[in-house]
Design brief:
With 201 residues, the protein is α+β, with helices and mostly antiparallel strands. Helices cover 22% and strands 37% of the residues. The strands form 3 sheets. Strands 1, 2, 3, 4, 5, 6, 7 and 8 form an 8-stranded antiparallel beta sheet that branches. Strands 9-12 form a two-stranded antiparallel sheet. The longest helix is centred in the first third of the chain and has 13 residues. The radius of gyration is 21 Å and the shape is elongated.
């Protein structure tokens, strides 16, 4: 795992409480609150019990989406690949999260299985400061790209700059959007008379 991804995986662990989304057998989105139990070099570990729909959805799809809010108004979002981990990780989870012993005392813990989120891509987003800041990260797969860019069709009219809430567009030929400070609102694309603004791919 690279240094940037490690930073945000540790942030997920520090926040600990996250919303976890999966898809059920009918294709409907399902969400619940979970705890990120362990942050490790190979990814993030979570646990759930075999009787829960969440368990079956993880096994069936092998995918998960997470979102969390840091105390200082920074958000984290993440899409990842998940697989069941060796049973020893259940014990490791209880060692690092002793409060779990109150919920599952003694050997009742073994109704749980541990899952490793072994690959994924995510984004950190800070709305507290101006201009806003965002950074993408990933481990085990390519980073997702999103937002907008300005093509050579740009005529330099300045319409995009005039409507940008964060003033994160610089003049040039073509104009340039600084994606690290972009809200991704799409106002620049809406106003551009030459249709020079497109989604990044």
């Amino acid at each position: 795992m690279n240094t940037k991804a490690e930073k945000y995986v540790k942030m997920f662990r520090k926040v600990k409480i996250a919303s976890a989304a999966t898809v059920d057998v009918a294709g409907h989105p399902r969400s619940r609150i979970i705890n990120i139990m362990i942050a490790a070099e190979e990814g993030m570990y979570i646990v759930t019990s075999k009787g829960k729909p969440f368990y079956r959805q993880l096994v069936d799809s092998g995918e998960i989406a997470l979102s969390a809010m840091c105390p200082d108004c920074q958000s984290l979002k993440f899409y990842g690949k998940v697989r069941m981990a060796d049973k020893i990780w259940v014990d490791r989870v209880f060692e690092e999260n002793p409060g779990m012993n109150e919920v599952y005392p003694g050997d009742t813990r073994y109704i749980l299985d541990a899952f490793l989120i072994y690959a994924g891509t995510g984004e950190w987003f800070d709305l507290l400061n101006y201009p806003i800041s965002r950074e993408t990260f990933s481990y085990g797969m390519e980073e997702e790209t999103s937002g907008f860019e300005i093509t050579d069709a740009c005529t330099g009219c300045g319409s995009c700059l005039s409507v940008c809430p964060q003033k994160c567009i610089d003049q040039g030929s073509p104009y340039v959007i600084h994606t690290a400070h972009c809200l991704q609102c799409g106002a620049c694309r809406e106003i551009c008379p030459s249709e020079a603004v497109r989604e990044r791919s």
